[in-house]
Amino acid sequence: MKAIGFKTSLPITDNDSFIEFETAKPIPAGRDLLVKIAAVSVNPVDFKIRQNSAKDMVLASPKIIGWDAVGVVEAVGEEVSLFKIGDEVYYAGDITRSGSDAEYQLIDERIVGEKPKPLSIEEAAAMPLTVLTAWEIMFDRLRINEKDRGKSILIIGGAGGVGSIAIQIAKKVAGLTVITTASRPESVAWCEQQGADYVVNHKDLLNEIRKAGFRYVDFILDFVDTNLYWDSMVELIKPQGHIASITGSSTPVMLNKLKNKSASFSWELMYTRSTFQTDDLIEQHYILNKVAELLGDGTLKTTLKETLSGFTVDNFKRAHQQLESGKTIGKIVIKF
């Protein structure tokens, strides 16, 4: 089968930052599905792994990345019970296994959902990683529930892939008052389209929130840089509130600053369940199917912003360059 990957970590402008190659078509066993891929989307995790996983070394065989895909089940392992051959599916994959930038991929059925029926393949491919991240961070980490309807949530980084769908889920599913950050006119307009009640400039976050009429907010989601906004988040979080982040930190986070408010902090990594094969691994199957229903009935909308046609090295380079710029709005999809 055809695949696109890399053997060493290089700048995206380098000729060999991505290479096309042939590799054996995998055979499913156990609970694995063999999916013939029709479209993938590109996320920041892709370029971060490309930049860092093969530094100062050359891999014996090319590494295939990519963790968002839509396709058709072509074969199944002997223990598969959730899907059958011919089913259209979507999923975000497992970071410990070979990725989706290939014609075929093996994927555990417990982290796969039924493709949202009314959506095109490219509209559906934009969604899995971001909806799983946004859903888990709100309902598994912050533990938002029915009694929280009407409370306030600040989403730092509203125009990106995760931020875009997080705005929608917070507003249309959780019933929260949504404040988000953006600075450029086009990103402000995009956040408003997703349903944000307030859009503030992250360059002066504390004062912008106060000007919007909020002394404190009940929940904060950080999708940009934990330490960069930490002091502002500590000041803005309501006593007994909850902050959660997906961004990680190269230096320690000063959690002691939350003590006086008895506030909580959580990390979210969408790959935790698959990496550690947690007992509730199948929750991602349920989340994807629930979101497929919400996308199907129009409650949620795809965050697809741009489609690149063709399974080519040039298209992957172009998508990675755009993501690395830090100015991407919504999602970029590559249609095979």
Short summary:
The protein is α/β, with parallel strands linked by helices and 336 residues long.
What does this 3D model show about the protein?
By secondary structure, this protein is an alpha/beta fold. It has two domains: 2-127 and 276-335, Alpha-Beta Complex (Quinone Oxidoreductase, Chain A, domain 1), CATH 3.90.180; 130-267, Rossmann fold (3-Layer(aba) Sandwich). It is 29% helix and 24% strand. The protein is built from ten helices and 15 strands. Strands 3, 4, 5, 6, 7, 14 and 15 form a seven-stranded mixed sheet that branches. It has a six-stranded parallel sheet with strand order 10-9-8-11-12-13, sandwiched between helices. A two-stranded antiparallel sheet has the order 1-2. The longest helix has 14 residues, at 128-141.
Helix content: 25-40%
User: Quick one: biggest sheet?
Assistant: 7 strands, mixed
Count of individual domains: 2
Q: Note poorly predicted spans.
A: none
Structural class comes to alpha/beta
Shape: globular
Rg over C-alpha atoms, rounded to the nearest angstrom? 20 Å
Counting DSSP H or I runs of 4 or more residues, the number of helices is 10
Series of secondary-structure elements, N-terminal to C-terminal:
EEEHEEEEHHEHEHEHEHEEHHEHE
CATH architecture of the largest domain: Alpha-Beta Complex
What's the overall average pLDDT, rounded? Answer: 97
Could you name the CATH homologous superfamily of the largest domain?
A: Medium-chain alcohol dehydrogenases, catalytic domain
